């Protein structure tokens, strides 16, 4: 008896609701399907199915056996698919969801590097900023730590960072540098507007004192729901804004921006990669995830952050 085939036939009979339907699904004769299930019952020494002329139902033993069987057959199918996939050239499309700032400042660069190594893999990027993203429609999604993710999804941490105050040298030469948080009231503040969040006091954290919180009522001269808009205005000397330090690190090193009000920050930032929970992940998706995680690690190297790791 081919025990593995008998197991698969038994599962198919239950899922299709009958021997004839299972036979059509598997391309076998109905008599062969019936014999394989009977052989399995004989091998186990128990009846798995109650058969009548009008209905088919699982026995208690059949229910118990099928519950364990599904997991076993699923693992076998995943192992077979993984070996077959690894034996083929890396190709196909990876569909990725990401918010605008991530797409521009991390994902675009990572995709170019990844495709140099895997030129036959296409990447389809959907740029969208939503507190409740449709992760299940994509192979991989890069999301902020506050985005809602189904608990059954696979989640991998990518970045732990923080937002810092910065301004251009030209702005500081004209308006001076704030010495304390309260000085922001005399400065031109550029502020990010988050989707679904009502504007409120500006909240500051002091990492040098266990994230001591300070709230300030400061009227911004510019608000935007787009990080790059605020970054461009900051570079043009429009005022002081809070920016992710990993994003502005090259600009700080080049002297195009200057950090102010250190060690105060405005937020802890985390980015996660989320994927629908599947028994088998295509090798192209797995390879892209590995590359993205390594790219994020290299980006954060050399940044001196006081960022708690989860």
Describe this structure in words.
The chain is 41% helix and 24% strand. It is built from nine helices and 13 strands. The strands form three sheets. Strands 3, 4, 5, 6, 7, 10, 11, 12 and 13 form a nine-stranded mixed sheet that branches. A two-stranded antiparallel ribbon has the order 1-2. Strand 1 and strand 2 form a beta hairpin. Helix 1 crosses helix 3 and helix 1 packs across helix 4. It is elongated, with a radius of gyration of 28 Å. The two termini are 51 Å apart.
Largest sheet: 9 strands, mixed
Task: Write down the CATH class of the largest domain.
Answer: Alpha Beta
Oligomeric state: single chain
Order of helices and strands: HHHEEHEHEEEHEEEEHEHEEH
Structural class call reads alpha/beta
Query: What is the rounded Rg?
Result: 28 Å
Determine the fraction of residues in helical runs and give it as a percent range.
Answer: 40-55%
* Overall geometry: elongated
Count the DSSP helices.
9
Query: What would the average pLDDT be, to the nearest integer?
Result: 85
User: What's the CATH architecture name of the largest domain?
Assistant: 3-Layer(aba) Sandwich
Strand content: 15-25%
Gap from first CA to last CA? 51 Å
Count of β-strands: 13
Q: What is the count of distinct domains?
A: 2
Low-confidence stretches: none
Looking at CATH, which topology of the largest domain would you report? D-Maltodextrin-Binding Protein, domain 2
């Amino acid at each position: 008896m081919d025990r593995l085939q008998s197991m698969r036939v038994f599962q198919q009979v239950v899922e299709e609701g009958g021997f004839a339907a299972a036979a059509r699904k598997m391309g076998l004769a109905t008599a062969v399907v019936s014999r394989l299930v009977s052989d399995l019952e004989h091998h186990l020494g128990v009846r798995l199915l109650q058969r009548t002329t009008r209905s088919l139902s699982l026995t208690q033993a059949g229910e118990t056996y099928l519950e364990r069987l599904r997991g076993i057959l699923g693992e076998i199918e995943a192992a077979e698919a993984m070996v077959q996939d690894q034996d083929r050239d890396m190709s196909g499309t990876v569909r990725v969801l990401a918010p605008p700032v991530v797409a521009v400042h991390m994902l675009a660069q990572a995709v170019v590097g990844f495709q140099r190594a895997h030129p036959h893999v296409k990447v389809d990027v959907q740029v969208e900023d939503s507190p409740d993203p449709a992760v299940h429609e994509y192979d991989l999604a890069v999301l902020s730590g506050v985005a809602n993710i189904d608990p059954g999804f696979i989640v991998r941490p990518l970045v732990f960072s923080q937002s810092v105050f910065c301004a251009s040298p030209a702005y500081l030469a004209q308006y001076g540098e704030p010495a304390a948080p309260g000085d922001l009231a005399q400065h031109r503040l550029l502020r990010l507007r988050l989707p679904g969040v009502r504007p409120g006091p500006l909240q500051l954290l002091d990492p040098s004192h266990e994230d001591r919180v300070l709230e300030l009522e400061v009227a911004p001269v510019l608000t935007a729901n787009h990080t790059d808009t605020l970054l461009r205005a900051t570079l043009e000397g429009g005022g002081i804004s809070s920016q992710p330090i990993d994003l502005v690190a090259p600009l700080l090193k080049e002297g195009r921006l200057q950090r102010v009000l250190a060690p105060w920050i405005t937020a802890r930032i985390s980015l996660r990669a989320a994927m629908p929970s599947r028994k088998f992940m295509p090798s192209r998706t797995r390879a892209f995830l590995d590359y993205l995680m390594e790219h994020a690690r290299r980006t954060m190297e050399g940044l001196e952050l006081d960022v708690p790791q989860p």
